Amino acid sequence: MTANALIARYSDAALSGPLGSLDAYLERVSRVPVVSREEEQTLARRFRDEGDVEAARALVLSHLRFVVHIARGYTGYGLPVGDLVQEGNVGLMKAVKRFDPALGVRLVSFAVHWIRAEIHEYVLRNWRLLKVATTKAQRKLFFNLRRMKKNLGWLSADETAIVARELGVEPSEVTEMERRLSARDIAFDASPTDSEDEDAHNPAAYLPAPDADPAQQVEDAEWEDASHAGLARAVASLDARSRDILASRWMAGDAEKATLHDLAAKYGVSAERIRQLEANAIKKLRTLMLETA
Question: CB 3.0–4.6 Å: which of 103, 199, 233, 269 could bond 273 by disulfide?
């Protein structure tokens, strides 16, 4: 069959028209014809040599059922199948773009690595709010641990050692990953249930946020700014000696804080006089602040 005939066949593929659900998509994908090796070579050369995007589209459509097959292998992570299929389709399109028909391999053999890579990235980004695998070894462990466990219980010490040896990681890493895989995310504000005891375990039940009101936060911030500005104006209205006394007595750290006798010696007056000047300055500041409040 010529390239034009193949492109025409996939232009009339069953995926045209609206899809109301994932089941409808899967049913239509199953009706898309599969290309033979010769047809695949024809379409791939047409895309490589002439840049014909319709030929690339035909290659993608003919392999969508294969993406679905791979995506279903990742349903155990609790993610929507539709999202897994969508990410796999992205990997398929990347594979078609890079596929070289001269290598003599089938597209499906080349594309499987791209499809799985995209699905792996999606699972790692979304399976947990807490990232469970950050290094290459952890990613390998993450995707193989479920498969290698022979039961639903915790691995024994011998089983942990076997898994660690086969995957090339430390036994402690296997134990840590098993703990992470066994954990579950808790919603901050759970949906209503008949049991009040279940609701009590959600963070929203025991983590109050009294400062969560944005209007109150803005009001508090504006009040604090106004208070600081008012205090600065009131201090500026004092004479230089009174400002120095307040700064030395109230604004310095504990180690640098001056005593009444230190300031008395500095200004050549009695300690009692320094105390009176300090009290008068504080009284004046309080009066000015009340007037501007």
Answer: 269
What is the C-alpha to C-alpha distance for residues 228 and 95, in angstroms, rounded to an integer? Answer: 62
Q: Is 166 helix (H, G, I), strand (E, B) or coil?
A: helix
Asked if residue 148 is part of any domain, the answer here is yes
Residues 246 and 162 in one domain: no
Farthest-apart Cα atoms in the chain, separation: 112
d(CA 189, CA 166): 41
Which string of b and e fits 181-220 if b means at least 16 CB within 10 Å? beeeeeeeeeeeeeeeeeeeebeeeeeeeeeeeeeeeeee
Single-letter amino acid code for the residue at 128: R
Q: Are residues 143 and 86 located together in one domain of the fold?
A: no
pLDDT in tens, 12-48: 555 555 556 788 888 888 888 888 888 899 999 999 9
Tokens coding 153: 């219980």
Domain boundary among 127, 154, 172: 127
Per-residue pLDDT, 85: 92
| Dihedral (Cα; 261, 267, 273, 279), 10-degree rounding | -90
Torsion sign across C-alpha atoms 100, 122, 27, 78:
positive
Contacts with 131 (C-beta within 8 Å, 6 or more apart), sequence order: 124
Range of the domain at 157: 130-185
